[in-house]
Amino acid sequence: MDFRASSVRSILDLPRRELTERFAEWDLSPVHVARLWSYLYWECVESWGEMEELPAKVLRRVEAEFHLPVPPVAREAHSADGFTRKFLLEQGDGRRIEAVLMRFTGRATACVSSQAGCAMGCTFCATGQMGFQRHLGPGEIVAQALHIQRILRREPAPRGEPVRLRNLVLMGMGEPLHNYDSVMTAVDILRDQSGLALGAARITLSTVGVVPGILRLAEEARPVHLAVSLHGATQADRAALVPAARKWPLDELMDACRVYTTKLSRKIFFEWTLIEGVNDSEDHAHAVGRLIRGMPAQVNLIPLNPTTGYDGAPSRREAARRFQDILAEGYGLPSTVRQRRGIDIAAGCGQLAAPEA
Ligand code: SF4
Q1: N or C: which terminal CB in the chain sees fewer CB atoms within 10 Å?
Q2: Are the beta carbons of 172 and 178 closer than 8 angstroms?
Q3: For residue 181, what are the contacts with CB-CB under 8 A and spacing of at least 6?
């Protein structure tokens, strides 16, 4: 079936619990759900025809009720160092999104998108520069992870390490907490132990600071790590880079972060894009330290990646090192400086964007 023309639901939208309910309504055994789930998320099949062990009447029913989307790859780019690959995936309505596979020694990480475009408008981000197109459904998020898992199955790692998709970051196009329900359904599907079985400790969701979403994550105790993009440590500095800060001011954001860390006893990763001459001085480092001192937290420093719509430059190595020293010595805060990977194919933080077909 041509999924572009299809109006039936994607089977990848359904958590196993919901699929089991549907099978019960159709008077079909849950045993068939288990086999179907394993075809979808363990064997990662691409068509109904590959599900040879499903009885014909089961297959007829699921084929009539659902489509099994395998998004065509409109473009694929490989970084020169061989560690990063970026995929431009076409959705059923012709919208395009990007997903990234990052290989490290012995492990692989998928960076997936939660929306086509983004409404948050962060000035230095290519996705923000393209504006919002639409939310992705759960199945469209899951399909990105499946695409990457298929690649890993087909093509062993360059050094032959056993590689399965173990880590997933929701840091691609879009603001995940602006599309909360779809993202959480996708996380449930990706975590299911009979399928891709991603561990809670290995899924990280990055938000620009959608306060109601952070509070809901805390309330529902969702099994994901939380990364919060700060970029500025005063309301004025932050709002200049992150327009969403006008809607969710810094003090409200920090209150929500405290609720989250207290309620869940989990740390938060605070992300800080280091832009030369904009937010990388010693004063900025002290401001960050004062802001999050006492909270279980880690700061991830990300030297700015280039985009066509923003003129800034990445901070120099010495500035990043000084920033780290101040956080550690003055405030006891651990930090990392993000490795720059995939910049040559615009697959780094803030670089994802998808041209119209
Ligand atoms: S940084 Fe994230 S939230 Fe901000 S515009 Fe880009 S995708 Fe959206």
Answers
A1: C
A2: no
A3: none
pLDDT in tens, 55-110: 999 999 999 999 999 999 999 999 998 889 999 999 999 999 999 999 887 789 99
- Distance between CA 357 and CA 349 in Å, rounded? 23
**317 and 230 inside one domain:** yes
Cα of 277 vs its chain's centroid, Å: 29
Q: Is 349 a catalytic residue?
A: yes
92 with 34, same domain? no
* Number of domains the chain contains: 2
Integer angstrom CA distances of residue 275 from 272, 324, 330, 352: 9, 15, 22, 18
Residue 208 counted as domain residue = yes
pLDDT of residue 5: 45
pLDDT in tens, 162-217: 568 999 999 999 999 999 999 999 999 999 999 999 998 899 999 999 999 999 99
Task: Indicate whether 4 pLDDT > 50.
Answer: no
**One domain for residues 195 and 100:** yes
Average pLDDT over residues 282-292: 98
Same domain membership, residue 221 and residue 324? yes
Give the domain range for residue 32.
9-67
What ligand 1 atom has the least distance to the C-alpha of 242?
4
- CB 209 less than 6 A from any atom of ligand 1: no
- Looking up residue 17, the CATH number of its domain turns out to be 1.10.150.530
Report pTM: 0.95
Do 50 and 113 lie in one domain? The reply is no
Asked if residues 42 and 190 have their Cβ atoms less than 8 Å apart, the reply is no
Helix (H, G, I), strand (E, B) or coil at 7: coil
Selecting among 53, 155, 349, 356, the annotated active-site residue is 349
- Taking the CA of residue 129 as reference, the ligand 1 atom at the shortest distance is 5
Q: Is position 352 within any domain?
A: no
184: CB partners within 8 A, 6+ apart: 220, 222
